[in-house]
Specification:
The complex is a heterodimer of chains A (91) and B (318). Chain A has helices at 2-14, 31-46, 58-66, 80-90, and strands at 18-22, 50-54, 75-77. With 91 residues, chain A is α/β, with parallel strands linked by helices. Chain A has a three-stranded parallel beta sheet, sandwiched between helices. In chain A, helix 2 (31-46) links the parallel strand 1 and strand 2. The longest helix of chain A is centred in the middle third of the chain and has 16 residues, at 31-46. Chain B has three domains: 3-147, Globin-like (Orthogonal Bundle); 155-265, 2-Layer Sandwich (Transcription Regulator spoIIAA), CATH 3.30.750.24; 271-318, no CATH class. Chain B contains eleven helices and five strands. Chain B has helices spanning 6-16, 18-33, 39-57, 63-81, 86-104, 111-150, 172-189, 206-221, 233-242, 255-265, 280-283; strands at residues 155-158, 161-168, 193-201, 225-229, 250-251. A five-stranded mixed beta sheet of chain B has the order 1-2-3-4-5, with helices on both faces. The radius of gyration of chain B is 37 Å and the shape is elongated. The interface between A and B is medium-sized, with 21 and 18 residues.
């Protein structure tokens, strides 16, 4: 929740065109985190910024799939480097 | 098991008649195995078991029963491997009763002792059954594990492109394994394109399709684009008649098509590589390659406009 507010404030202030969320350190996810990530994607789209989630672990990906969350509306990449490539390729 | 020292008396009796009983027991077992095990081998096994049974009956120590069971388990396992049926193994144990009964039949005063002994032998016979089925189950589970391991390779097709050729049937357990291996490989190789080849999958029903979709969406979460390839005509018909939607997942008829798609998405193109040896422009000969018209390696090559006269091309001029 704090993250969402901070992100919205920051996006409004800087007018950034891309958001990278690195979740390498996240080992356990639940449906709440999945929903939160989708919401962050929607919020940043309102500021015309694209969200890329990077560094997801295989176990996390399997859990999210089993929960039926495909994180529509956000892009995903293997690592921060590839995430940046996606953002740069778009802009 | 012990009532008023009956089992001790039985142990005493068995010890006294050791050679006779072991001899008769071996004979009975040898007759049953019909030459699949040598008589000496049988005699050794029988002798070991016999002394363990005496130790159990005489209550000499607590470990005897455990040892006897372990020896019996080992025996049943080796018999199972040699192709004996569990009944044969159990009957081999039961024939000890027969051997002893032939001796005790004359002496009426040993009846309670024989009953105690008989109960022990029954337990042991049943134990061989248990050990046999446990050994068989172990073999079966080992084999299915081996099959699971064998059937899920993840291969690297190109820099950044990996493929999973699926063979056989797709159930939940295998999908889980495939998914884990695919995702691990995606992470370790840093690939951004995965091809799932289902040429070897015999049937595709809604459940299999569901598993495929799950695998694809998990791979997408790692930022990899997935293509499903190897869809045979019958499979395509089944998929359509079942109303399965693959959505925006790219599907291709063959692995080659999927590879071409993946390469083009990665911004690569495969061109015939002939021109490193092209000497036509230097030698002044006419170029004879059938790919001459697409040659971009040596733009200045004048022979690009001419047609081949022979193939393979003439060797380089000295």
């Amino acid at each position: 929740m704090r993250l969402q507010e901070d992100l919205a404030d920051e996006l409004a202030a800087t007018g950034a065109s891309g958001v990278i969320i690195d979740i390498t350190a996240v080992e356990i996810v639940d449906s709440f985190i999945g929903r939160m990530l989708t919401m962050i994607g929607s919020i940043s789209r309102l500021f015309d910024a694209e969200t890329v989630i990077v560094g997801m672990r295989p176990a996390v990906a399997i859990t999210l799939t089993e929960l039926g969350l495909s994180l529509s509306g956000v892009r995903t990449a293997l690592n921060a480097e590839k995430g940046l490539e996606i953002l740069n390729g778009k802009s | 098991m012990d009532v008023g020292g009956t089992s001790e008396r039985m142990a005493e009796y068995l010890r006294d008649h050791h050679d006779k009983v072991v001899g008769r027991w071996s004979e009975l077992v040898t007759a049953r195995v019909r030459g699949r095990t040598s008589p000496d081998e049988v005699r050794r096994e029988v002798g070991d078991l016999y002394s363990l049974i005496i130790r159990v009956l005489s209550d000499a120590d607590d470990h005897a029963l455990g040892e006897l069971r372990a020896a019996l388990d080992e025996l049943s396992r080796s018999r199972a491997r040699d192709g004996f049926t569990p009944s044969e193994t159990a009957l081999g144990v039961f024939s000890l009763k027969e051997a002893v009964y032939e001796l005790v039949a004359d002496t009426a005063d040993l009846v309670p002792e024989f009953l105690v002994f008989s109960r022990l032998i029954d337990d042991l016979g049943l134990r061989t059954f248990e050990a046999y089925s446990a050994a068989r189950e172990q073999i079966i589970s080992d084999q299915s594990n081996a099959m699971l391991e064998l059937s899920t390779p993840v291969v690297r097709l190109w820099e950044g492109i990996i493929a999973v050729p699926l063979v056989g049937t797709l159930d939940s357990a295998r999908t889980q394994l495939v998914m884990e291996k695919l995702l691990d490989t995606l992470v370790t190789t840093g690939a951004d394109h995965a091809v799932i080849d289902i040429t070897g999958v015999s049937t595709v029903d809604t459940e299999v399709a569901q598993h495929l979709l799950k695998t694809v969406s998990a791979a997408r979460l790692l930022g990899a684009e997935c293509t499903i390839s190897g869809i045979r005509p019958q499979v395509a018909q089944t998929i359509v008649s079942l109303g399965i939607e693959f959505g925006d997942i790219a599907t291709k008829a063959t692995l080659a098509d999927a590879l071409a798609l993946a390469l083009s998405q990665a911004g690569m193109k495969v061109v015939p590589q002939l021109w490193s040896k092209c000497r036509s422009s230097r030698s002044g000969r006419r170029c004879s390659s059938p790919f001459r018209s697409t040659c971009k390696t040596i733009p200045s090559c004048a022979s690009r406009r001419t047609w081949p006269t022979s193939w393979p091309p003439p060797g380089p001029a000295g």
